[in-house]
Amino acid sequence: MILIMFGAPGVGKGSQARFLSEALQIPHISTGDLFRENVANRTELGKLVKIHMDNGSLVPDEMTIGLIMDRIRQADCKQGFILDGFPRTISQVEHLEKSLKAEMRAIDTVVNITLDDAKIIDRVTGRRICPSCNSVYHLAYHKPYSVGRCNNCTTDLVQRVDDTESTVLRRLQVYYAQTEPVLSYLRDRYAVVDVVSEDDINDTTRKIYSSLDLAVHGASNKDARYMRLPSGCA
Ligand code: AMP
């Protein structure tokens, strides 16, 4: 299954992609995470992309497309994969389609997650991430068990440089100007599932699972054996 998680920054694409990746046993590929790894490891690519990321603009297509095309050709993507944060421009979606077509594959479904801008700003500015395992928390809505520490690996949580209010506003502008047109392009060609992001992350997960027609409990379709709701999400 080839899934695209679509939506503005802060709607919860990454968290939902992680749940689905675990449930479907296919890789979760986030361009933002790949870029952040490069920045943290001070690679040549990391040095080039940092300025774009820090000011909330898009990394140029020529640095983004190759990275993703190389990643989806790897062996672990043979059974499918979940893209999070890609494609964000028309050129990116066209390259993706071309590359998949060459392997007789295609995008199966797009999950479009929506949320009011005011809520997005609240969520993003309160977000804290684990720089080691990429787990995501929120100061008010999804607190770690121990203050400032990741539940999975106890690493100190950090705020992303681009999660400040001024940068989020810029990222939203960039989303509406450059990325939202990609959604219309996808709607014309593929199945798009629209899901409003809920305050309780598990409610959003349930909605996505049922919209995708994947089994939550006892359903009998062919994907049922792969689906497991995240812990705490009954
Ligand atoms: P994200 O973690 O998806 O919010 O991405 C963080 C930042 O990485 C974005 O604000 C962009 O600067 C950059 N980025 C991530 N994905 C892409 C993409 N598909 N195209 C261009 N820039 C991207």
Summarize the structure.
By secondary structure, the chain is α/β, with parallel strands linked by helices. It has helices at 13-24, 31-40, 44-54, 61-72, 90-102, 117-125, 165-187, 201-211, and strands at residues 2-6, 28-30, 81-84, 109-114, 127-129, 136-138, 191-196.
Give an overview in words.
With 234 residues, the chain is α/β, with parallel strands linked by helices. It has one domain: P-loop containing nucleotide triphosphate hydrolases (Rossmann fold, 3-Layer(aba) Sandwich), CATH 3.40.50. It contains eight helices and seven strands, in the order E-H-E-H-H-H-E-H-E-H-E-E-H-E-H. It has a five-stranded parallel β-sheet, sandwiched between helices. Strand 5 and strand 6 form a beta hairpin. Helix 6 packs across helix 7. It is globular, with a radius of gyration of 17 Å. The two termini are 24 Å apart. The C terminus is likely disordered.
| Domain tally | 1
CATH H level: which superfamily?
A: P-loop containing nucleotide triphosphate hydrolases
- Order of strands, main sheet, comes to 2-3-1-4-7
Distance between the termini: 24 Å
Low-confidence stretches: 215-234
Question: What is the total tally of β strands?
Answer: 7
Please identify the top-level CATH class: Alpha Beta
Q: What would you report as the Rg, rounded to the nearest angstrom? A: 17 Å
**Global shape:** globular
Sheet with the most strands, sense and barrel status:
5 strands, parallel
Q: How many H/I helical runs?
A: 8
Q: Which band does the percent of strand residues land in?
A: 5-15%
Label the CATH architecture.
3-Layer(aba) Sandwich
Structural class: alpha/beta
Determine the mean pLDDT: 90
- Oligomer classification: single chain
Query: Remind me, CATH topology?
Result: Rossmann fold
Helix and strand element order:
EHEHHHEHEHEEHEH
Helix content: 40-55%
